[in-house]
Design a protein that fits this description.
The complex is a heterodimer of chains A (334) and B (590). Chain A has 334 residues and is of the alpha+beta class. Chain A has two domains: 231 residues, P-loop containing nucleotide triphosphate hydrolases (Rossmann fold, 3-Layer(aba) Sandwich), CATH 3.40.50.300; 98 residues, OB fold (Dihydrolipoamide Acetyltransferase, E2P) (Beta Barrel), CATH 2.40.50. A six-stranded mixed beta sheet of chain A has the order 6-7-8-3-9-10, with helices on both faces. A five-stranded antiparallel beta sheet of chain A has the order 13-17-14-15-16. Chain A is elongated, with a radius of gyration of 24 Å. Chain B has a domain of 233 residues: MetI-like (MetI-like fold, Orthogonal Bundle). Chain B is built from 30 helices and no strands. In chain B, helix 4 runs parallel beside helix 9 and helix 19 packs across helix 23. The longest helix of chain B has 34 residues. Classes of the chains: A alpha+beta (334), B mainly alpha (590). Chains A and B meet through strand 6 and helix 2 of A and helix 24, helix 25 and helix 29 of B.
């Protein structure tokens, strides 16, 4: 559906994207994830046609589209700040694209009402000024405005970043549902790893204009291909070399103590399980989060944090000694 | 982001606007001023220092130069003393009735220039009411007591504190209040905090306002003209009188060039110094300023007394002008007003006599035309300059700022001396002596201010709005018309109103360029101050002034007053001129 073929983007003497090749399948929810300044928004804006790449080709539906103007690409886009036109009402905003196409008044009205219903905007909200709507409602207007033109592709540029935490969780579910119902190919840009993991079919992790890994959320999280990906996605422990040696001594012979090793917090257990190797340690600190607690443990020179579900068991006092269990297969080495 | 010329000139609209702008710059901003320089130093195609020799040998001219600098230096001190004081008592110290005080001090916002000079003259001058009233009791008092250097300094001191009111107040409001609280907790006194924390933080703005005041003093025209008498004449009135005869026109041009040069040097110095000494607030969350109580009892009494005395000084002329507009002129001249002297006759005369109302209407038409044309024309240019950044647009922008660094008098003189013969650049027309030239001058002087505010208006619109319109299929002209223009409309309307206001009582440009059949208001008011024969026109001037003050207050209210109350309305969000104090700043100086 979408293909980036050796795309290169340069601003002055700064190479924002050195060489990007990427393929997004029809109907897929594809996320570009990375820290700010990593080139993900540049990649999205190149697809939208706002940036002309200095090299390479963009294919949409198999057609070379690099020099096709934005408005001819049949792409809908939701901007980070929504970019709603403040001088127009909600209805006029949604109808803007149809007005440009000189569609008849009756058809415009029908389409606007239809799409408004789909994104759960009421008819009386259509006559309101955009500044009278809440952040979440404004976002729906932005989505409706993009979808009313029946685009082939929907681009979303950090559309949830201006909302408060609770609303963000709620809206990301609605957004995902809407995308699934419409089956529209979606490219989503975010720096929020949780958003990426919960919504995406596949994720591309960006770092300094280069893709570090493309994969399903589980691939990215559990089988991070590079050190950058594993430290960027989720909290993680770095294990000291002697700790790895101890684990090798305890039977985890597949591990190489000379490599940098990481293990995720929830993969560190204080209860024995099958296939796990064990370490001696002591409790330094406990941070209570409600549903779980994070214990900071000391084992030799390594400081290891473990996530423990609060299921009613008595908490471990500080200074008490514990046995730490880690499944060697969950250790990531680079 | 930089845009190449090739990308920029893909749009036919850009080409047309660029060509029109280029023509305007060449014909009216560059050509006349270059022509003025050439005709002064190369009168017959060859270099000649004749005008310089003439200047050095003219005692009058040399004295006027000295007077101008003397006035500029004196005002830099007096205006700061008064200006800083009025800002502190209205915005910094707890002074009872500070809102009333502010209104009194703000009277100079609604009348200035020739109107203000004439007002003071009619009250304290040779035939003024106060002078006559005092002389009824003490016949020995010199009727000319209010003239010369002293009178000019007094009048201009109170007239130019406007800059302090506008810019120093806003700088004070942005002060990080926590720095004051921190100083207090460490035991600093009221005066110590003022001296060591507040004033140093305001120093860049005080410096900038001082430069403006200096330039205002240097180029002063109306106050020395009306109140300077024979003893105290400065450069600008001298340029005016020299320009009236062809034998001394080169002298006028040279003086104007000197004035322009001094302005450019001072502004350039200021720009450089300003870059090195700006203090940024380090506070992430600035706490709003709370008014300070003056600790010492006597200090409090002293400040209050001084504040109210100044209030009287500021508001008396305005109140008297309003009162006198309802009084027959004979009573004012003789200094004897009784209940019987009050009448509506003055208003009836102004509004009922076409010949008397005419200057007012002429000024209204000129100002309205000029402000609409300059905003309408620059709407496109400002957008192009804001959107495309490359050497070509930078050059255009610099050139469009020429009127900003040149005194109005110089611009006007250059226009008169350039278009007094057919010029190919305007299609071989002679413009001097036509009613058109004054309109052109008004448009020219308003270009920099308008451009800056419109550009700021466009710049405050997020780029994503345009991207959004584009991806929804809109062409650039459609986007401009339907998305961008509605958003800069509040700013454009405000600029139009402010331009209209400031042109309404113009004298500086009009005196060089007006057409005898279309005499604007400034000229009529100035004429009414000229000696005994015109005493009847005094009352008419009072009526003019009241009408002017009404219009200006209304405009000020529409532009600033209303939006201060509901600034969160969506229409005000982008491009409100309130958000750009630095830019407004230059306006008042011009």
């Amino acid at each position: 559906m979408i293909k980036y073929d050796k795309i290169e983007v340069t601003f002055g003497d700064h190479k924002a994207i050195p060489e990007l090749s990427l393929h997004v399948a029809e109907g897929e929810f594809f996320t570009l994830l990375g820290p700010s300044g990593c080139g993900k928004t540049t990649a999205l804006r190149t697809l939208a046609g706002f940036i002309e790449p200095t090299g390479g080709e963009i294919y949409i539906d198999g057609t070379a589209s690099t020099r096709v103007p934005s408005e001819k690409r049949r792409i809908g886009m939701v901007f980070q700040n929504y970019a709603l036109f403040p001088s127009m009402t909600v209805g006029q905003n949604i109808a803007f694209g149809l007005t440009v196409q000189k569609m008849s008044k009756a058809d415009t009205k029908r389409l606007v009402t239809e799409i408004a219903g789909q994104v759960q905007l009421s008819t009386d909200q259509l006559d309101k000024n955009v500044s009278e709507l809440s952040g979440g409602q404004q976002q729906r207007v932005a989505i409706a405005r993009a979808l009313v033109l029946k685009p082939r592709i929907l681009l979303l540029d950090e559309p949830l970043s201006n909302l408060d935490a609770k609303l963000r969780v709620q809206l990301r579910e609605q957004l995902k549902d809407l995308q699934r119902d419409l089956g529209i190919t979606t490219v989503y840009v975010t720096h929020d790893q949780e958003e990426a993991l919960t919504m995406s079919d596949r994720i591309a992790v960006f770092n300094r204009g280069v893709i570090e890994q493309i994969g399903t959320p589980a691939d990215i999280y559990d089988r991070s291909r590079t050190e950058f990906v594993c430290t960027f996605i989720g909290a993680i422990n770095r294990l000291a070399a002697h700790t790895v040696r101890e684990l090798v001594g305890g039977g985890a012979t597949d591990l190489d103590p000379n490599k940098t090793s990481y293990v995720r917090l929830e993969k560190v257990s204080l209860r024995p399980s099958s296939n796990s190797a064990s370490l001696r340690g002591s409790v330094q600190e406990r941070a209570y989060h409600g549903a779980y607690s994070t214990y900071t443990l000391r084992s030799g020179e390594s400081t290891i944090r473990a996530m423990v579900i609060e299921d009613g068991a008595a908490p471990l006092p500080e200074g008490s000694s514990v046995t730490v269990h880690i499944d060697p297969s969950s250790i990531l080495q680079y | 982001m930089r845009t190449s010329l090739r990308t920029m000139f893909r749009s036919p609209l850009v080409i047309v606007v660029s060509l029109a702008t280029l023509w305007f710059i060449t014909a009216f901003l560059v050509f006349p001023n270059v022509n003025l320089l050439m005709s002064t130093f190369f009168p017959n195609g060859q270099f000649s220092g004749r005008s310089v020799e003439k200047l050095l040998s003219s005692e009058r001219a040399m004295r006027s130069l000295w007077h101008s600098f003397l006035l500029a230096f004196t005002l830099s001190i007096t205006v700061n003393v008064v200006g800083i004081f009025i800002v502190l008592v209205t915005k910094y110290f707890q002074v009872p009735g500070s809102r009333v005080l502010w209104l009194g001090y703000a009277t100079t916002l609604i009348y200035g220039g020739i109107v203000l000079a004439a007002g003071y003259n009619f009250i304290y001058g040779r035939y003024g009411f106060i002078t006559s009233a005092v002389r009824n009791w003490f016949p020995d008092v010199d009727p000319n007591w209010f003239s010369g250097f002293f009178a000019v300094v007094i009048v201009m001191t109170f007239a130019t504190t406007t800059n302090h009111m506008l810019f120093l107040s806003s700088a004070l409001a942005k002060l990080d209040y926590q720095t004051i609280e921190a100083a207090r907790i460490m035991g600093a006194s009221t005066w110590k905090i003022l001296w060591r924390i507040v004033l140093p933080a305001l120093r860049p703005m005080i410096f900038a306002v001082t430069v403006l005041t200096f330039l205002t003093g240097l180029g002063a025209l109306t106050a020395p003209l009306v109140l300077g008498g024979t003893q105290f004449q400065t450069i600008a009135p001298m340029i005016l009188s020299f320009s009236r005869s062809s034998s001394s026109q080169d002298l006028a041009a040279l003086l104007a060039i000197i004035l322009g040069l001094a302005t450019i040097i001072i502004l350039a110095t200021m720009n450089r110094l300003e870059k090195s000494g700006v203090y940024f607030s380090v506070a992430k969350v600035a706490t709003p300023l709370q008014k300070q109580r003056i600790q010492s009892r006597w200090g409090r009494v002293g400040v209050n007394v001084a504040a109210w005395l100044l209030f009287i000084v500021y508001s008396t002329p305005v109140l008297l002008i309003i009162v006198f507009s309802f009084v027959e002129s004979a009573s004012i001249v003789t200094g004897t007003i009784t209940w019987d002297s009050f009448t509506l006759q003055n208003y009836a005369t102004v509004l009922g006599t076409p010949a008397v109302l005419r200057p007012f209407l002429v000024s209204v038409v000129y100002s309205a035309l000029a402000s609409v044309i300059v905003v309408g024309g620059l709407l496109f240019a400002a957008r192009i300059l804001q959107k495309y950044r490359n050497p070509f647009t930078s050059l255009l922008e610099y050139l469009l700022h020429i009127p900003w660094i040149l005194p109005t008098i110089l611009i006007a003189l250059a226009l008169v001396m350039t278009f007094d013969r057919p010029a190919p650049v305007v299609g071989g027309q002679v413009l001097t002596g036509t009613a058109l030239l004054l309109l052109i001058a008004y448009i020219i002087v308003k270009v920099p201010f308008t451009l800056r505010l419109l550009k700021a208006g466009f710049a405050s619109i997020p780029d994503s709005l345009e991207d959004a319109a584009r991806i929804l299929g809109a062409k650039s002209l459609f986007t401009f018309r339907r998305v961008l223009v509605p958003l800069v409309l509040p700013a454009a309307a405000a600029v139009t109103a402010l331009n209209f206001n400031s042109l309404l009582d113009d004298y500086d440009a009009a005196v060089f360029l007006y057409h005898p059949l279309y005499e604007p208001l400034g000229i009529a008011i100035k004429a009414s101050t000229e000696g005994e024969n015109n005493l009847d026109s005094m009352s008419i001037t009072f009526v003019y002034t009241v009408l002017l003050m009404l219009i200006m207050s209304l405009t000020m209210y529409l532009v600033y007053g209303r939006s201060a109350g509901n600034g969160r309305q969506s229409g005000q969000r982008f491009g409100s001129p309130l958000g750009a104090p630095k830019r407004r700043f230059w306006h008042a100086g011009r």
